[in-house]
Amino acid sequence: MTTAPRLPRVQPPPPAPPSPPALRPRVVARTGLYAFLAANAAAVAVLFVQGGFAANALIVLGRFAGLYGALFMAFQLLLVARLPWLDRRLGMDRLTSWHRWTGFGVLWTLLAHVVLITFGYAQLSSLDPLNQLLDLAETIEGVLRALVAFALLLVIGGVSARAARRRLAYETWHFIHLYTYVAVVLAFTHQVAVGTSFTSSSWGTAYWYTLWGAALGAVFAGRLGLPLWRNLRHRLRVTAVVPESDHVVSVYVTGRDLDRLPARAGQFFLWRFLTRDRWWQANPFSLSAAPDGRSLRLTVKTAGDGTAALRRIEPGTRVFAEGPYGAFTAMHRTRPDALLIAGGVGVTPIRALLEELSGHCVVLYRVTADRDAVLHDELRDLAAAKGAELHLVTGPAVPDRLAPAELARLVPDLTGRDVFLCGPPPMMNAVLGSLRELGVPAPQIHFERFSLAG
Questions:
Q1: What order of strands is seen across the sheet that includes strand 319-325?
Q2: I need a surface site. Which of 129, 323, 326, 327 has the fewest CB within 10 A?
Q3: Exposed (0-12), middle (13-18) or buried (19+): which is 119, by Cβ within 10 Å?
Q4: Is 365 a residue whose pLDDT tops 50?
Q5: Strand, coil or helix: what is 229?
Q6: Is 296 helix (H, G, I), strand (E, B) or coil?
Q7: Where are the alpha helices (DSSP H) in 411-446?
Q8: CA pair distance 266, 374, nearest whole angstrom
Q9: Helices marked H in 220-304 — which ranges?
Q10: Is the pLDDT of residue 15 over 50?
Q11: Residue 450: pLDDT band by 50, 70, 90 thresholds?
């Protein structure tokens, strides 16, 4: 363990913030996604009609469900491709949440597809539904592959349920989730073989190849290509590991051309420290200092065995970092002044934001006791240099020290500020309730829940 120059790297007060854009970045990205989905839904409907109708109504409905199941699967891939343009505007937590709900759409539409097709063909034959399904798998090309894909999706959906997800390590859940790509390939080959909208016209064939190619290409570029390219370019290494308290440690990382890494205060990376016992573990940790083009810093609460091992990381250790990710940045501010609310180790992105934000800032740091206030000295010095107000709010969880009345007392002009919030989920939920009760407009409230980490 070595020492590193202490932060903050205080700069002269920046100029007044620019006026917010007429169209908020989050609105632009969300509208673009909705328009993309609507346009493709309309295209699928046209292809369905052009493919013709079967004599049996159940088969018609089954084909319709199958087409939209395929569209939902492609949309799911786009949502988790970690494309920088979308991630900076919507945030990985929102994209991951939408991916999860889209997954339910995939399961229900594909279940309807299997059931309706099976019962439809059973009506045209003398077979019962089970034997009809087996007959379809034996006699029609691609059906068996589709059934395997559906079984894989059922397993993945089961382990993604909240009750199961809580019982699995992130790495185990992630490994099982990778079989989604196997299911996608199997489903696509089934569509190529028997899909009426795929085989009925050259336009339909071109559409589905383009859609699946774009979805898989986005995943390849965002999840594999871009991280590999950035890590080869920047060659990150640990330069120092500095204890901040008995249970908190800061890790300093440097590399080549960091001034060209598009990271902002408030964002996080998925960090892999390439030691023999940790190379396979990826953990989301926020930057705890604004990027300066020379180094990066993360500050971590060493709560479990994985994070506790960070204290033993040696300087010189290679680092593989995926990111930067997250929409918890100054890009989304709508007002000249800001209120920053941190709870516990959630202070790390808040401290980085304070370093970057211009305008007048008020910082509320909620902890149980003074000894739990990690980075408090840095916050105090940084606030003094920037003319910001810092309030350390201590005490037990009950009574709520950030209840509406207390927030209004500490920050009388609260409704005229952007609010950036980061902390433990119970604290965040309580503060969000207080902000709504005080009438703070939703576009002025910024937070991320880091649901990726489960």
A1: 283-286, 268-273, 319-325
A2: 129
A3: middle
A4: yes
A5: helix
A6: strand
A7: 425-437
A8: 17
A9: 226-234
A10: no
A11: low
**Structure token pair of residue 234:** 């920047």
On the question of pLDDT at 258 being above 80, the answer is yes
Residue 341 backbone phi and psi in degrees, to 5: -120, 125
pLDDT more than 70, % of the chain: 91
Residue 377 to residue 361: CA distance in whole angstroms = 17
Residue 410, token pair as written in the block: 């500490």
The span from the CA of 426 to the CA of 214, in Å, is: 39
What sign results for the dihedral spanned by CA atoms 171, 172, 176, 177? negative
Two tokens at 60? 């018609």
Output the CA angle 367-371-373, nearest 5 degrees: 45
User: Where do the H-state alpha helices sit in 4-125?
Assistant: 25-50, 57-79, 84-90, 92-124
Contact between 104 and 57 (Cβ < 8 Å): no
CA 274 to chain centre: 23
| Residue of higher predicted confidence among 77 and 195 | 77
| 4 CB burial (10 A radius; 0-12, 13-18, 19+) | middle
At a CB cut-off of 8 Å and minimum separation 6, what does 273 contact?
Answer: 238, 279, 281, 310, 313, 317, 318, 319
CA dihedral 80, 85, 89, 92 (to 10 degrees): 20
H/E run at residue 269: strand 268-273
40-50 confidence digits (pLDDT tens) = 999 999 988 88
pTM of the model: 0.86
CA within 13 Å, CB half, 43: 17
431 neighbors 365 (Cβ within 8 angstroms)? no
Please state whether beta strands 248-254 and 295-301 pair in parallel, antiparallel, or not at all (unpaired): antiparallel
Quick one: tokens of 292?
Answer: 């300066």
Q: Stretch 89-107: mean pLDDT, rounded?
A: 91
Compare 188 and 450 and report the one with higher pLDDT: 188
